[in-house]
Amino acid sequence: MREANKAYVEHANISVLNAQETIDFLTTAIPSWSVRGQGEMDWFGEKIQWFHVGDDNTYIAVQTGGKGVVQNWKESWTGVKHIGIVVPDLDSLVTRLDEAGYPVDHAGARHPFRRNVYIFDNNRIQYEFMEYFSDAPAERNDYDL
Description:
The protein is an alpha/beta fold. It has helices at about 20-30, 90-100, 135-140, and strands at about 10-15, 35-45, 45-55, 60-65, 85, 105, 115-120, 125-130.
């Protein structure tokens, strides 16, 4: 549930080579998410499909029509490096994704109040999944430890 009159990110929109691959990845990672809407549209002369994968409050807009390959996240370039998603149980997510063929690429820095990992879908889109161990903003958002 979102707080009234507070800004938040509703969605991110990504173009991919294989939409079903990303849909499968996201719904495996977060079983409570589903395709909440979908359709086709003319994207500047090209017919594409779009899918909103998420819940009632937030989603990833996945659209077909992607071309080329995602650049290596370790290189300098302009664009989205990863999409961060908070989950209630990181260990369960890691197990589900590993069993589905999506291993952890790398873990984030050690921190007493949060833990995070980075995992790629087969479209080479990188996701950061994090679990917080505190509700206190000063602890959750501490960058000095």
